[in-house]
Amino acid sequence: MVEAPQAETRSVSAIMFTAMVSREARVPAEEVLEGELKEEHARLVRELLSRQGGREVKVTEDGFLLAFEEGLKAVQFGVALQEALRCYNAHASSERQMALRIGVHVGPVVCRGGDMFGEGVNLAARIEALARPGTLYVSEAVMKGHALPPALRLRRNALKGLRLPVEVFRIEPRGALPRPALFARVRSLIALRRARG
């Protein structure tokens, strides 16, 4: 029996990739710890996603592919996620410290079978790979038309698979956005998990 082709929809979305900066696991205990940290990363992402909006498209090897209606919402989420991670690290032991790279682009995407494809997705992935641990990098398309937090313009980058260099910006999160109540919620969840052991 031949399966019917999956329906495709095309739209313009704000696409975000998150990636946990992993350490090379050399022994089984380190592999277990790496798995636990990935689970903690997932909990932080999903907790914020449920409050800030946005959609989880899929889990990647090191993080998530997320989609938002507009660039501003993606940036607000990215800033909140990095802040939540700083709160987590402030209470975590040295071996449980985590760092994330986040990349965001706004562009055309193709949605099919619950996944997302297209040049916009590829560009967001390339921008995430450029980002340094603990930072949020965005494309010029994200910066247009929004009152975004302060950003540092980086040099134009020639990204693999793209014809033209892309201008990339690093969002400066500290003090750039008001801290919503969800930060307090994240702190309380972390404290509760620690109390339960």
Automatic annotation (TrEMBL):
InterPro entries: A/G_cyclase (IPR001054), Adenylyl/Guanylyl_Cyclase_3/4 (IPR050697), Nucleotide_cyclase (IPR029787). One of its GO terms (molecular function) is adenylate cyclase activity. GO terms for biological process: cAMP biosynthetic process; intracellular signal transduction. Pfam families: Guanylate_cyc. It comes from the Bacteria. CDD domains: CHD. Residues 17-128 form the Guanylate cyclase domain. Gene3D superfamilies: Nucleotide cyclase. PANTHER family: ADENYLATE CYCLASE, TERMINAL-DIFFERENTIATION SPECIFIC-RELATED, PH-SENSITIVE ADENYLATE CYCLASE RV1264. This is Adenylate/guanylate cyclase. The lineage of its organism: Bacteria, Pseudomonadati, Myxococcota, Myxococcia, Myxococcales.
